[in-house]
Design the sequence.
């Protein structure tokens, strides 16, 4: 029984890790290629969730909503890049932090303006409703398994895109020497917009998929954004491989910590206290893991060669 | 001392901040005294951050942690003084502000030392994200630790006391905050002019050269970061007393962002930058809040325009470019 529960929690951890990867991949790509720190990435996640919920409510189809979320987040990303972000590439990180912080305020309040303060709800598509039996007798929702699968497919697709296509070659070249590929005649401004929109689309996809698990509301992107920061700091900023491993590590550590720490402490202290201390300690666990990793490797597990 | 333009503007700012509450008190408008107190306290918090960010070039996105810790020190000590339960090792709580200030500053400084010791091993964008992550760690701890209110926060039933005066009177409390702010600005000026401050600024400008002349940039920065944390923690204790309420929102990353915004609005690294920024921010907030329910949207827009087109902040606009420093 406990083993089955542990398996369930492990899968939950994987699912969280996959979501974090979708966020972190965009952040780390944008940082790697453009050297930009983008706090507004969580807002793009929110845009994806709202687009999916709205379009799904109009059309009655989750799948159309999913496509809409990709399109809306990519479009929002491209517009933001063209209007604001492109002025920030030459600025220091402080200006980038502030400008994207301002963008968060605008996105959050703007969304509240358009959709009101009440959360929207998004139903799991009929195809993915239901649960499968896990060994040990418990059941696990199909939808969460589907998210894990979708994340794995996206991760593989991203790998193919970056290592096998011409666009990927330009992205890699952009990461190693921005000025050189500009000098070689690649339209660097368009490349930046494309990379930013790609990152935004990944965030939007994550938002849409999570939207069916939680309520869709303003501010939903912020906790995920900060976890994604932890992920890319652990993995090494600029490294997609680091983002993948970091995301899985953070997802599983966080979920398993919340599950196991109170149980572990219950062996030593009274159950009520164990729950309290364990809960508080579990919420800090990933940050402690991050601190330990950075104390040993200040630039993350897979530091990008140039940064 | 030659009275240059910036000094003159600083004096006018300080005088204005002092004059407004007296005028409000005379006119029977205590709300404006609270607004001025809020400006003074936020300016104090940002002055703390200005030590790290302005002088040391350390973009800390986690100063809300120190602000909140200071706030919780005030809240927890007052709660224990009220209930009579001993706190730790048989020590009791207190309602004396000056004791609370000392505890708040020391505790925030120590936490700053610990966070800084790890974060300062990194630099640039890593530093920004790590300080943010540590602040989130404190935030989630405050939320999930139920003993002091957890998510709901902690009320301070009666404002803490200061010997000889009645702190419940808005004007009196404002004056206390004002004096503390001036003291902190004095400390900032002293540090900036000291050998330590010179080294801190030099470490921002050229780390390698500082190391070459035999100064370890890491130690200088760590010291600066801890002092910065202590000042911001002190501001947190005052903020808790102003609202007579502490909650995890004081620890949230929006607070960290706001503190940076104050400095940028006023002028980075300038002595009175935090005060100018805090005044501008609180007035924006109040004026926009009166005009539209969607004030945060317009605040974001103004911020964006300031960052993109008006570099140097308010003092940069009024007093010209900063001298090298």
Sequence:
């Amino acid at each position: 029984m406990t083993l089955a529960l542990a398996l369930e929690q492990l899968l939950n951890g994987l699912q969280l890790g996959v979501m974090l990867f979708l966020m972190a991949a965009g952040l780390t790509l944008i940082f790697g290629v453009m050297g930009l720190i983008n706090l507004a990435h969580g807002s793009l996640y929110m845009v994806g969730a709202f687009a999916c919920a709205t379009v799904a409510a109009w059309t009655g189809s989750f799948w159309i909503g999913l496509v809409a979320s990709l399109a809306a987040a990519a479009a929002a990303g491209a517009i933001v890049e063209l209007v604001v972000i492109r002025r920030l590439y030459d600025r220091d990180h402080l200006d980038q932090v502030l400008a994207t912080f301002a963008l968060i305020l605008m996105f959050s309040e703007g969304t509240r303006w358009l959709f009101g303060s009440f959360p929207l709800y998004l139903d799991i598509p009929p195809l993915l409703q239901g649960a499968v039996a896990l060994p040990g007798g418990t059941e696990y929702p199909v939808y969460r398994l589907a998210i894990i699968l979708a994340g794995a497919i996206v991760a593989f697709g991203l790998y193919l895109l970056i290592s096998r296509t011409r666009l990927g070659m330009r992205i890699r070249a952009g990461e190693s020497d921005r000025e050189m590929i500009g000098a070689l005649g690649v339209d660097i401004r368009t490349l930046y917009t494309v990379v930013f929109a790609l990152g935004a689309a990944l965030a939007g996809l994550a938002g849409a998929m999570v939207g069916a698990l939680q309520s869709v509301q303003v501010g939903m992107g912020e906790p995920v954004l900060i976890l994604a920061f932890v992920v890319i700091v652990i993995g090494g900023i600029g490294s997609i491989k680091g983002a993948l491993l970091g995301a899985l590590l953070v997802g599983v550590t966080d979920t398993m910590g919340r599950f196991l720490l109170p149980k572990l402490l219950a062996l030593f202290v009274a159950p009520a206290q164990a729950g309290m201390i364990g809960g508080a300690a579990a919420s800090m666990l990933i940050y402690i893991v991050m601190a330990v990793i950075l104390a040993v490797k200040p630039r993350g597990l897979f530091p990008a060669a140039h940064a | 001392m030659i009275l240059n333009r910036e000094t003159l503007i600083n004096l006018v700012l300080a005088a204005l901040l002092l004059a407004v509450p007296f005028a409000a008190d005379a006119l029977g408008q205590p709300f404006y005294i609270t607004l001025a107190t809020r400006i003074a306290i936020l300016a104090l918090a940002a002055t703390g951050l200005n030590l790290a960010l302005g002088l040391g070039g350390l973009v800390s996105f986690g100063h809300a942690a120190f602000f909140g810790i200071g706030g919780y020190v005030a809240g927890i000590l007052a709660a224990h003084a009220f209930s009579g339960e001993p706190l730790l090792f048989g020590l009791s709580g207190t309602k004396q502000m000056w004791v609370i200030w000392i505890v708040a500053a020391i505790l925030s400084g120590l936490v700053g030392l610990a966070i800084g010791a790890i974060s300062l091993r990194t630099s640039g964008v890593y530093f920004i994200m790590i300080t943010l992550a540590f602040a989130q760690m404190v935030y989630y701890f405050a939320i999930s630790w139920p003993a002091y209110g957890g998510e709901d926060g902690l009320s301070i039933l009666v404002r803490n006391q200061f010997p000889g005066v009645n702190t419940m009177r808005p004007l009196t409390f404002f004056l206390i905050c004002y004096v503390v702010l001036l003291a902190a600005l004095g400390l900032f000026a002293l540090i900036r002019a000291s050998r330590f401050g010179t080294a801190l600024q030099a470490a921002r400008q050229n780390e390698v050269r500082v190391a070459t002349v035999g100064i370890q940039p890491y130690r200088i920065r760590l010291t600066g970061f801890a002092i910065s944390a202590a000042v911001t923690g002190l501001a947190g204790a005052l903020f808790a007393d102003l609202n007579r309420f502490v909650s995890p929102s004081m620890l949230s990353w929006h607070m960290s962002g706001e503190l940076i915004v104050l400095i940028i609005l006023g002028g980075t690294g300038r002595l009175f930058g935090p005060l100018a920024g805090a005044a501008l921010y609180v007035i924006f907030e109040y004026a926009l809040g009166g005009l539209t329910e969607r004030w945060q949207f317009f605040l974001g827009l103004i911020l964006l325009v300031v960052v993109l087109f008006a570099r140097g902040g308010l003092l940069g606009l009024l007093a010209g470019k900063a001298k090298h420093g």
